Amino acid sequence: MPGSENSKQLLIDALKACGAVRFGDFTLASGKKSTYYIDIKKASTDPGTLRTIAQEASKIIKDMQADSVGGVVLGGVPLATAVSLESGLPLLLIRKEDKGYGTGGRFVGELRQGSRVLLLEDVTTSGGSVKDAIEAIRASGGEVETVITVVDRESGATESLASMGVRLVPLVRASDLVSTA
Asked: What pTM was computed for the model?
């Protein structure tokens, strides 16, 4: 369902051009070793690449039933914000834990009972970080059926999220980035 092969290639080219794809020896957040690293924060801080990501994600979600676009703090915030602006859907930010001061809470934005939230993720490996956000949204009465990730590292996130009844839709897969190195 993601965009055409041409638009996918434009995104791959943009990710590489902004320096989001690097090769070498890296240790991932999971502790696993990798010969490549995908730094979507570099893409999120490059206006052209961020616009391309937002346009590609918005093409995918235009026919979906969603009440808001969500992103997990920090990596998902610029992505979800850009997609919110591009799609016109309200924004929901999900903190990793409740804020203990001010108005408190785990969410920034409106989450109503039955709200359908489409989550944006920068890079998925096992899906662990986004699963926590899905559980928090569901515990607060929201619904999550789809997560759009900029890059899927193809390391189990699709299956892990499917076990929760959530579909993972990658804009590109790591194998697309690595094979066109």
From this structure: 0.92
